[in-house]
TrEMBL record:
This is HAD family phosphatase. InterPro entries: HAD-like_sf (IPR036412), HAD-SF_hydro_IA (IPR006439), HAD_sf (IPR023214), PGP-like_dom2 (IPR023198). It comes from Bradyrhizobium zhanjiangense. The lineage of its organism: Bacteria, Pseudomonadati, Pseudomonadota, Alphaproteobacteria, Hyphomicrobiales. Pfam families: Hydrolase. NCBIfam families: HAD-SF-IA-v1, HAD-SF-IA-v3.
Length: 207
């Protein structure tokens, strides 16, 4: 279990999806199925986060190339604009309580984001959620830095950039593999499995 106590952190680092922003991927599937005239289940059965997905997240392939790969893997012939519509439909609002927790935490120490994401999502959430994202001093986004969680190099890059010891950074993420990757690089990490986990951790830190 992660040990948190008042005074044990100099910076807080947050994943975005399911930590700050709620994500519902079924909205993308439903949108694409509607455009393609097929059942959502047919797309769910074929969708995987493959090599093209990973390359898209580190900015190595274009949106058009990624959507072309989806056309092939999903077996649906819809336009780039239709893919984009579904791709951006996954954002389902802010996570409960986060809008109250972040400003409170930001009064005590700097807040940062570290997210595996891609250019169209960045374009979308930067506008739609500008208010809540304004509490963060810096956003480390995989598509911008060319590195993604849970790779050691990615965590080392972010820790160096933040400029405080890894052990003094508390990292929040909903995926166990990212939490493990962060701990392996010396960060203190909180596995977020319910909306109350962030608030509980901040209270343990005296925030």
């Amino acid at each position: 279990m992660t040990s948190l106590s008042p005074g044990s952190a100099d910076a807080l680092l947050f994943d975005l999806g399911r930590v700050v922003l709620d994500i519902d991927f079924s909205k993308a599937i439903a949108c694409w199925a509607g455009h393609a005239g097929c059942q959502p289940e047919a797309i769910v059965a074929r969708y995987v986060r493959d090599e093209a997905y990973r390359l898209h997240e580190v900015g190595k392939i274009s949106d058009e190339d990624y959507f072309q790969s989806l056309r092939s893997s999903l077996g649906i012939d819809i336009s780039d604009a239709q893919f984009l519509e579904g791709w951006n439909a996954i954002f389902a609002g802010e996570m409960p309580d986060i809008a109250e927790l972040l400003p409170r935490a930001a009064k005590q120490m700097p807040l940062y984001v570290f997210s595996n994401t891609n250019r169209p999502h960045v374009d979308y959430f930067s506008k739609e959620y500008a208010g809540v994202l304004g509490h963060f001093r810096e956003l480390y986004l995989s598509s911008s830095i060319g590195l993604r969680k849970p790779d050691a190099e990615a965590f080392d890059h972010v820790v160096t950039s933040i400029g405080v010891p890894a052990s003094r950074i508390v990292f929040f993420d909903d995926l166990a593999e990212n939490v493990e990757g962060a701990r392996a690089r010396g960060l203190t990490a909180v596995h977020v499995t319910s909306p109350s986990d962030v608030g509980n951790a901040l209270r343990a830190l005296g925030i």
